[in-house]
Amino acid sequence: MAKADSEKPDFKAPRPPELLSPWRTERRAALQAEARAFARDVILPIADELDPQKGEMPRSLIDQMAEKGWFGITIPAEYGGMGLGVFEYCLVSEELARAWLSTGSILARGQGLGTQTLDEERRRALLAKSAKGQWIGSIALSEPTAGSDLAGVQTRAVREGDEWVLTGTKRWAGFAQGADFIEVLARVRDPEPGEPRSAGLEPFLVVKEPGTFPPGVTGTVIDKIGYHGFLTFELSLDGVRVPERDRLTGLYGDEGADADSGGFASVQRGLNIARVHTAARAVGVARAAVEDCTAYLQEREQFGQPIGQFQALRFALADMAAEVGQARAYWQQVAHLLDEGLPAESESAAVKLLATEMAVRVTNQAMQLHGGNGYTTERRIERYWRDARLTTIFEGTSEIQRRIISDRMLPRG
């Protein structure tokens, strides 16, 4: 469906956000410009056509992102990756999410995900495939009764010789059918007395052909109200056999994890990166709303003049832009901390909380500024509004982020 809010040449376009010192380097600036142009010229027309149909992004689009090297932004150069950090990963993701949230998200299915195998030679080969966008995965952590409480995972993995047999139900597995593999968090044993509830949880690699589910796995599509571009599934695992070599030692390229460190801890470390990534994606969505509103306030006329001449609307737009800029500066700061090797757990939770709640406010205000036109599928605003709402939920709800922050500020009795 064609969108009515395409920019017209006579409109004053908003000044695009640039990298400011101390974060700016020439390489980062070039990467940002490349991703911005790709999002505008390639992704946005596809999103405008497919999102109203709840359509999936075409494989050709994923392949184009792979050719850019973006699935290997954080993978070391020795494996064919770009050898960059969390900052650059989030920088590209913000730009892509500005056009379509799901394209900023699909990059997380690379970045060395699903490569932490026990076999070092195989690990290197999978890292090379991941960097090329040829090893794209789905993550199956949550369950119908274990979401925010990840330690409550009940999917079982039972050892039988050189294989593990997985049985259970997983929910919110995005891109599960299209992926090359599915990361499954499963319980290999119950916690011993005195151990944390997370003891005995390990990640496993379920290898599959893209477009299919492997033997023992069935998937039911979850009908979402937004976040289109790829399908999200509830998975049933019934005796899924995984060889010992596909028991993983960590997630998200965590070099510090080993076979005895526990899969749950590695998941938690990866979630810190995921939360900053979510903040960057939320900023991208909110920025889209600000940019579309800037054009619309000049296009729409009432009472004989563009509505952008009315002070109340001008000030609303200014507040929106200020909030987006604040959240962008914060995610960049926290990404820098992670790249410096600092855990930044509270900071990651805080930026995820603030950026996503900001995105909900800004997209809601954008719909208000568009009036009745904002409450139609003729404009992109409703897409931003639907997608922003999800960012306060996935990768840990806003309430969970508040708990993380407060638990590190106050003792528990």
From TrEMBL:
Stored InterPro entries: Acyl-CoA_DH_CS, Acyl-CoA_Oxase/DH_mid-dom, Acyl-CoA_Oxase/DH_mid-dom_sf, AcylCo_DH-like_C, AcylCo_DH/oxidase_C, AcylCoA_DH/ox_N, AcylCoA_DH/ox_N_sf, AcylCoA_DH/oxidase_NM_dom_sf
Domain of life (superkingdom): Bacteria
Start-end of Basic and acidic residues biased regions: 1-15
Domain Acyl-CoA oxidase/dehydrogenase middle per the UniProt entry, residue ranges: 139-240
Region spans: Disordered: 1-20
Domain Acyl-CoA dehydrogenase/oxidase N-terminal: 25-133
Pfam families to which the protein is assigned, alphabetical: Acyl-CoA_dh_1 (PF00441), Acyl-CoA_dh_M (PF02770), Acyl-CoA_dh_N (PF02771)
Domain Acyl-CoA dehydrogenase/oxidase C-terminal: 262-410
SUPFAM superfamilies referenced in this protein's UniProt entry, alphabetically: Acyl-CoA dehydrogenase C-terminal domain-like, Acyl-CoA dehydrogenase NM domain-like
Keywords in alphabetical order: FAD, Flavoprotein, Oxidoreductase
Cofactor(s) annotated in UniProt: FAD
Membership in a protein family: Belongs to the acyl-CoA dehydrogenase family.
Protein name: (2S)-methylsuccinyl-CoA dehydrogenase
